[in-house]
Specification:
Layout: H1 3-15, H2 19-35, H3 39-55, H4 59-76, H5 79-95, H6 99-115, H7 119-135, H8 139-152, H9 158-173
Helix pairs in contact: 1-2, 2-3, 3-4, 3-5, 4-5, 5-6, 5-7, 6-7, 7-8, 8-9
């Protein structure tokens, strides 16, 4: 089976909820991509493994995979995928109850997504940051982050426009929005 077929197999297993089997398929694909000299795809497979490990609540394995993927993307100069791996580290920290660490990862990922003009992932990460602030009862920070998430989107639904306006009220009243 070639590297792309192994990747497709891992993705199909993941979508089917067979996370342990997906980890193995992504590992096989990673090896195949490495042997083919495709470092970016190999690092993507590590990131995918991390997500599957997170779904299995295998926190340490997920963290190792995400960190290795992020380090690989740094070496390869792929800032966008580096941001995705960093955001995944944030999600993992959040699942583990390490909210302060999650916030730091989310903030780092946001800066990277902004540098890549990746507004969709930036918005998703702002929302994750908002939830982390909410868990810490940092209400104004949570509102500000959610407002920023909405500002990233090119088109807002009527409901989103109303939310942005409502969330902006306290910010405007305090002189910050």
């Amino acid at each position: 089976m070639d590297d792309q077929a192994l990747k497709d197999k891992g993705e199909a297993l993941f979508r089917a909820g067979a996370y342990a089997e997906a980890v193995d398929a992504f590992d096989e694909a990673r090896t195949a991509f490495q042997e083919a000299g495709d470092g970016v795809s190999a690092a993507e497979m590590l990131n995918n493994q991390g997500v599957a490990h997170r779904m299995l609540r295998q926190w340490d394995q997920a963290e190792t995979a995400f960190r290795e993927a992020r380090d690989s993307f740094v070496r390869l100069g792929d800032r966008g995928r580096q941001a995705q791996a960093t955001a995944n580290l944030g999600m993992l920290a959040d699942h583990r109850g390490q909210t302060q660490q999650a916030i730091a990862h989310f903030q780092e990922a946001i800066v990277a997504f902004q540098s890549q003009r990746d507004h969709a992932h930036e918005s998703d990460t702002w929302r994750a940051l908002s939830r982390a602030f909410f868990k810490q009862r940092r209400w104004l920070d949570a509102l500000t982050a959610y407002h920023s998430a909405l500002d990233c989107l090119p088109r807002l639904s009527l409901g989103q426009r109303i939310l942005r306006w409502l969330f902006g009220l306290p910010l405007r009243l305090l002189g910050g929005g």
